[in-house]
Amino acid sequence: MITGNTLFTNTPEIVTADKLFWLGFLYRNLDKIVSVFVNITDDFKCIVCKDESLNYTSSSSLARHIRHHARNTVEFWLKHFISKSPEELESMIRDKNYKRHEVEL
Question: Is the pLDDT reported for residue 104 higher than 80?
């Protein structure tokens, strides 16, 4: 069982459920996850696969890359972000620095 926050709902709450529930929930919200990942970094680097490329010249090209490996993106969120509170996530986006928030890559 995995305990985490349902951050992409109208009323985020802490839920304990099996991995299958979380995978379904995260795949349904993949676009929102990609948006968070693009917004928490100011260097155009994929935090999921650690790929840094000159091809990521904009947020949209980085988002396209992150969306390309959806399974890894969902697994990464499940491992590192599922237990983050809405306040922690907001702070990460505001600071644009996921490294300061104990996300070990």
Answer: no
Task: Tell me the per-residue pLDDT of 40-58, one tens digit each, with 9 for 90 and over.
Answer: 876 677 778 777 666 666 7
Amino acid at 45: K
SS3 51: coil
5, containing H or E segment:
strand 2-5
Reported in sequence order, the residue ranges of 6-80 that DSSP labels E, i.e. its strands, are 14-17
Domain ranges of the chain: 2-101
The pLDDT score that the predictor gives to residue 101 is 47
3-state secondary structure 15-78: EEECHHHHHHHHHHCHHHHHHHHHHCECCCECCCCCCECCCCCCHHHHHHHHHHCHHHHHHHHH
Residue 92: how many other CB atoms lie within 10 Å = 21
> Residue 18, SS3?
coil
**Inter-residue contact 13 to 6 (CB < 8 Å):** yes
Cα(3)–Cα(59) distance, integer angstroms: 31
